[in-house]
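Notebook B, p. 112. Complex prediction, attempt 2.
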Amino acid sequence: LFSKSWWSPWFPAKLTNAVLRAFGVVAFANNPLSGFLIMAAMMASDVIVGVAGLLSATVAVICSKLQGAPDHLVCDGLTAFNSLLVGAICTAVLPDLLNLKLHFYHVLLSIPISIITCYVDLGLSSLMSPCQLPAQSIPFNLVATGLVLSLRGRLYGYGLKIHGIDTQGHGQMYDDAFRTLAQDITEVFEGDQTELQWVKVLEGSVLAAGQVYGAGNMASSIIIWLAFFLYSPILSVVFYLGSIIGSCLAVFLSPGSLSEVYAGLWSYNSMLAAGGSVFFLQPSLHVAVVAVLGACMAVFTQAAVMNIFAPTQLPVLSYPFNVVITILLAISTQRGTTLTMLTNRSFP
Amino acid sequence: LFSKSWWSPWFPAKLTNAVLRAFGVVAFANNPLSGFLIMAAMMASDVIVGVAGLLSATVAVICSKLQGAPDHLVCDGLTAFNSLLVGAICTAVLPDLLNLKLHFYHVLLSIPISIITCYVDLGLSSLMSPCQLPAQSIPFNLVATGLVLSLRGRLYGYGLKIHGIDTQGHGQMYDDAFRTLAQDITEVFEGDQTELQWVKVLEGSVLAAGQVYGAGNMASSIIIWLAFFLYSPILSVVFYLGSIIGSCLAVFLSPGSLSEVYAGLWSYNSMLAAGGSVFFLQPSLHVAVVAVLGACMAVFTQAAVMNIFAPTQLPVLSYPFNVVITILLAISTQRGTTLTMLTNRSFP
Amino acid sequence: LFSKSWWSPWFPAKLTNAVLRAFGVVAFANNPLSGFLIMAAMMASDVIVGVAGLLSATVAVICSKLQGAPDHLVCDGLTAFNSLLVGAICTAVLPDLLNLKLHFYHVLLSIPISIITCYVDLGLSSLMSPCQLPAQSIPFNLVATGLVLSLRGRLYGYGLKIHGIDTQGHGQMYDDAFRTLAQDITEVFEGDQTELQWVKVLEGSVLAAGQVYGAGNMASSIIIWLAFFLYSPILSVVFYLGSIIGSCLAVFLSPGSLSEVYAGLWSYNSMLAAGGSVFFLQPSLHVAVVAVLGACMAVFTQAAVMNIFAPTQLPVLSYPFNVVITILLAISTQRGTTLTMLTNRSFP
């Protein structure tokens, strides 16, 4: 299929292949069948999110082909997965965040945003090429950040949200709220310590797979794990170990309520960091250490950046994964170190 | 003139040429006559701002020559335009921002600041050289940010400004102000929707040219447009299209009052982004698309970063332009893409 | 010693040498005796801080050797000094910052954190290698920032501290406090102007040496100056000039109380910036100018970033030094400039 020309009757087949792979490569699972399962799981969780993702990915494959991006990247969906994430995460997260009601025609906005993401993707890849590292999902993070912040500014002004009470003043009484806040916080903290449920922490480690795609329910997450397993059982095990490490560490590092840990929002970055280390690097004992370390560093990074993101309500997206994986993979570009980048990957 | 030695009787001529070109190259108009017109427009708008710019540019040309910066960059004013901007924008913006009264002798401060900017400029150019991209006006942005924030901290402490009410407490009653804020905001938003005046939006798209130089009035802006036109009618048209796109999009994306849109503060980044795309890249249909996209992305970037800048009252400067143009131009450094950097430019 | 194998009976000697040098190279003093004196000064100031530093450095030398970092860097302690700083500064600064009581067994936490710092160090060095510049103490800054912010978030939530009153509400009454704040600030400012004591400013310029290592008292600082002098009298003089410039400029730029200036917290970045310029660059008149400029720029940078750091209570660490030295050294990587990187250093 790779050898066929795009401008031939093979176009629909090549396009479908690239789009489906885009769904997979978000989590390194470069395989159209895995991609299809993941797409199905997203549709099952929320049809608007699934459609937005599909539309974004399709637009992105065509757009990046027209831009002249390297053909093997286009065919593997690597030029489209950032657009897919912007389309999916923004429909899944923006409405709640900004108190908007999502309509089906909002999905059409995915088209221009997907095109912009393609340019950001290509540009960042060039900027990172002196370091010999891929841009991972940094383009998604930047575009989604731009989108969230610009719309939030438009709707609510540039106020900062301070400790759950935002300062924009739409009818809230800041000082009254403040007086009761001290009590609430105390309760939440005390509540946590008595109620910590390890079963829910485990649940969170499974839900992480869904959170990567903005599909937060259990059924979708299980289908996505199945899709990972189909691509590579080994990668799936590493993903899960990373996710468990993330969930458990987050119990000690996330402040306030543990509901975010239970929902998998503190483990998907660890999952991707551990998986990414194993995926990009030549297998060795050192890589195993790096994977565990990467999972831990992702939680610390998330706990740290939340201090900066929380006042503008910006979700953490996959910044922690990108920071950690970029630093760790950079080591392998230096000669003499015991880490080496894989060039030909073949997975069981 | 280029072939003459600096250390000869030609020194004043070479210096004047480089300084005047510095005024032009802020907006890519590398031409001493355009530069002269722009300088005149700045003087007409505010003589202190003009003098500060002239002084900064002169110091910077000499300083960068002494530093051993590449001679063709010095002669084209490319090593001096960042200093010029720091000198001009800081005298134009700082006093209002920090509630200071500007005296003429403050202009002398331009000298050390211009020298520092030269070092930052040369350093950043080196740091960006692996990416094969120019540093644009990033040095100006960094130095101006440092200056604004450090003086603000000195004068008012490190408090954050929350929704128009800053928390430093110089006699303001935070909670009283807060109670009336909700009403004010509602009024402003309602006011906007009934009062949107497209004529003023058009005015804003013209004023953008002045805002680049800290000269916010109509007469100066028109002279500056004339200077652009003299350098290249085509570039001027692209500038204006970018500016119009920026103004119109900002109507939908800027929060609160539209007075900033009317003043051209939301369109100069779009103007520069569109112009920059056309200036740096080999003409093609794709470049036209990139120019339009760049203009749109600049508005989104501005709306996004304002969330981060507003609490410290830092003006947006030309961050949006720099982010957008750096990402877009980076694409052209990758082989295979349909964008190519121009090496020899000859305009109209 | 350098030619002996690590895996021989020479191991303890090589390890000790590398660890002691790590103490020195924080301030470029690459010499085991200087390192020993500095370690002693840290122990004298606070035994926990000293032990944490020693433990971190030891772990880091072994860890970076196992990672396969370049041998000459490991032997010179250059792969360990960032870990040392994280260990020392975090035990010295974190407890006060977060209102925690430090126990001796907390020191054991230095081990995992030191290992993480090694990875960040190696990764960042690779990321910066296209620019041909060392990563300086950026790894320390990033890891310490991550640690401070993540623990702060865990303990107190993601609230911002606004003007000395943090918003987390543990029993504080925001609005009452606010009413009295205006008066306090006025008093502090007035107080300053009458009380400025130049002797204390000089004291601050001496204490700067200790602050680099988290050892804030005079005796330790003097031992550390002695250690610098032992390595190189010239470098020490430059350090002190930088420190003096920093202290004096900070009197005009630091807001509020001058107690931080008196404690040397506004001069150690200037000290390192001036010293670093002279250490890395080939001696010339231009380098002298750069050293003075670097010392000034460090104070401006500190005053600027404090606006961003203060709301999360993040200490300034050595960000100003790293920003300034990276920009200034980058100039030397460009051909034609009058600054050149030293390749072989030999110091009086």
